C-alpha cells in the first residue's frame, strides 16, 4: 500500500510535468499554454524533472511495477524535453553573442525596482495620468532617454506591472534616464483606440520638455513597449517620424531614435479572429473594448491601429522580440511586420525565443537576459551621443494635441 501511494504521489506531478513540457513542442490543448509559461524557468523545471526521475527510479527498484515504469518514463520524458528547450535557449544566446547566467534563470532574483520619482504628466476630465522616473546611474552627462509603455491588452495594467519596472531599473543602472508611462484604459463603456496613442505622444512631449531638469538628452529618445504597449510605441514612433505629430524643443524636432518592442500586438484583426481553443474568446474582448466592435463593423478603426499601416521609410530602427509559441500575439504577425519594415528600408532586428510565449522576459530568465542585452546594444547603436549638450528649458509643442490639461510643468 505504501509503495502504491508513493507511486501515485510521484506519478501525478511527473505526468503533469511531462504534458506541460510536451506542450512546448506539440499543440496539446491547455498544456501548450502552461508549457510556454514554465519555459521561462526551464532549468528549474529540468531540476524538478530530474528529482522526479530519481524518485521514480528508487520506487521501481523498491518494487517493480508497470505503474512505476510509466512514472519513470514520464519523468525521463520531462527531463529530456526541458533539457532540450534549455539547450535551444542557450543556443539562442550564443547566436546573439550574449553571455547568460543560469542561476537567475532557475530562481527568480529579487530586484529593487522602486522608481526615483513619480509625476503627473497629463490631466483629463476623469483622471490624472502619471509616469515613473528612474534616473540614470553613473553618468555625469545628460543621459539618453527611454520611454517605456506597459502592456495589458489596452484594457489592463499600469506602469508598475509586467516587466516594465525591472527593465526600467536595469537600463537606469546602465546610464539611461527611464520613464514609464500610464495611459487611460479602455473598457466595455469607453473605446480609446483614438486616445491612447495621443497620450503616449503627450508623455514624450512632457519628457522632452523636462529633460534638462531630469538629466536627460531630448535628442536621444528611444521607446520600449510590451504587448499592447509594443503596438502603441510602434505606432507613435512611426507617426512622429512621419510628421503626424510635430514635437520640437527650441525649434528642433524631437526624433525617436530607436524602438524595442516585446511581443507587440501589431495586428488586432488577427487577435480578434484568434482560433485558440482556450484563450480565443477572451482574446476577442481586448480589441472589442479597445476598438468598440469587430473588424467587420469598424474596418477603418482597425486599420488606424494596425502597426503596418504606419510604416514608412522614416520609421525608427526597430528591435522586435517574441516567443515562437505565443498564444496571445501570433508570431507570424510580428514576422510579417518585420518583413514590411525591411521592405520599407527600416533597420530591423528580431529575437525569437524558442518554445516561449507571452512574458518570456520574466525577471532573470534566459529570454530576459538576451532581450535586455540586445536592447542595450540597439539603443547604443541608434541613440547616438549628443553633439551639443547645451541647456534646454522650453516645453515642446505637439501639433493637434488631445483636448486635455497639462500635468506638472518644468
Shape, principal axes of CA atoms:
globular
| Helix content bin | 40-55%
Question: How many individual domains?
Answer: 2
CATH superfamily of the largest domain: Alpha/Beta hydrolase fold, catalytic domain
| Beginning-to-end CA distance, first to last residue | 74 Å
The CATH class of the largest domain: Alpha Beta
Count the beta strands. Answer: 11
Main pleated-sheet profile: 9 strands, mixed
What structural category characterises the helix and strand content? alpha/beta
Strand content: 15-25%
Descriptive account of the structure:
The structure is a single chain. This protein has 410 residues and is of the alpha/beta class. It folds into 2 domains: 94 residues; 285 residues, Alpha/Beta hydrolase fold, catalytic domain (Rossmann fold, 3-Layer(aba) Sandwich). Helix content is 44%, strand content 15%. The protein is built from 14 helices and 11 strands. The strands form 2 sheets. It has a 9-stranded mixed beta sheet with strand order 10-9-8-5-3-4-2-1-11, with helices on both faces. Strands 6-7 form a two-stranded antiparallel sheet. A hairpin with a 4-residue loop joins strand 1 and strand 2. The longest helix is centred in the N-terminal third of the chain and has 30 residues. It starts with a helix and ends with a strand. About 5% of the residues have low confidence.
Amino acid at each position: 500500500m505504501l509503495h502504491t501511494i508513493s507511486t501515485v504521489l510521484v506519478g501525478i506531478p511527473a505526468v503533469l510535468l511531462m504534458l506541460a513540457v510536451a506542450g512546448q513542442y506539440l499543440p496539446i490543448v491547455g498544456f501548450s499554454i502552461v508549457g510556454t509559461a514554465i519555459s521561462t524557468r526551464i532549468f528549474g523545471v529540468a531540476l524538478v524533472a530530474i528529482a522526479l526521475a530519481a524518485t521514480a527510479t528508487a520506487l521501481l527498484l523498491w518494487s517493480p511495477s508497470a505503474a512505476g515504469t510509466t512514472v519513470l518514463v514520464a519523468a525521463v520524458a520531462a527531463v529530456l524535453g526541458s533539457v532540450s528547450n534549455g539547450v535551444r535557449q542557450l543556443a539562442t544566446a550564443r547566436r546573439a553573442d550574449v553571455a547568460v547566467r543560469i542561476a537567475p534563470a532557475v530562481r527568480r532574483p529579487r530586484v529593487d525596482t522602486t522608481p526615483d520619482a513619480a509625476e503627473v504628466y497629463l490631466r483629463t476630465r476623469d483622471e490624472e495620468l502619471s509616469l515613473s522616473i528612474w534616473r540614470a546611474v553613473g553618468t555625469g552627462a545628460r543621459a539618453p532617454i527611454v520611454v517605456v509603455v506597459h502592456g495589458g491588452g489596452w484594457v489592463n495594467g499600469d506602469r508598475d506591472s509586467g516587466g516594465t519596472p525591472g527593465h526600467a531599473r536595469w537600463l537606469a543602472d546602465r546610464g539611461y534616464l527611464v520613464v514609464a508611462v500610464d495611459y487611460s484604459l479602455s473598457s466595455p463603456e469607453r473605446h480609446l483606440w483614438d486616445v491612447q496613442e495621443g497620450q503616449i505622444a503627450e508623455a514624450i512631449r512632457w519628457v522632452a520638455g523636462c529633460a534638462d531638469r531630469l538629466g536627460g538628452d531630448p535628442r536621444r529618445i528611444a521607446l520600449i513597449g510590451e504587448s499592447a504597449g509594443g503596438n502603441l510605441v510602434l505606432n507613435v514612433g512611426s507617426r512622429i517620424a512621419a510628421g503626424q505629430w510635430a514635437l520640437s524643443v527650441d525649434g528642433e524636432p524631437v526624433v525617436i531614435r530607436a524602438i524595442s518592442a516585446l511581443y507587440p500586438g501589431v495586428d488586432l484583426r488577427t487577435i480578434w479572429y484568434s482560433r485558440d481553443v482556450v484563450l480565443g474568446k477572451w482574446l476577442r474582448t481586448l480589441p472589442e473594448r479597445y476598438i468598440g466592435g469587430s473588424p467587420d463593423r469598424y474596418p477603418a478603426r482597425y486599420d488606424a491601429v494596425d502597426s503596418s499601416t504606419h510604416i514608412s521609410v522614416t520609421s525608427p530602427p526597430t528591435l522586435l522580440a517574441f516567443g515562437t509559441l505565443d498564444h496571445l500575439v501570433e508570431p507570424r504577425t510580428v514576422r510579417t511586420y518585420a518583413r514590411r519594415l525591411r521592405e520599407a528600408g527600416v533597420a530591423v532586428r528580431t529575437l525569437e525565443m524558442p518554445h516561449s510565449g507571452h512574458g518570456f522576459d520574466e525577471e532573470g530568465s534566459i529570454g530576459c537576459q538576451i532581450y535586455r542585452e540586445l536592447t542595450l546594444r540597439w539603443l547604443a547603436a541608434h541613440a547616438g551621443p549628443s553633439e551639443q549638450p547645451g541647456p534646454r528649458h522650453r516645453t515642446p509643442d505637439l501639433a493637434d494635441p488631445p483636448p486635455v490639461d497639462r500635468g506638472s510643468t518644468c
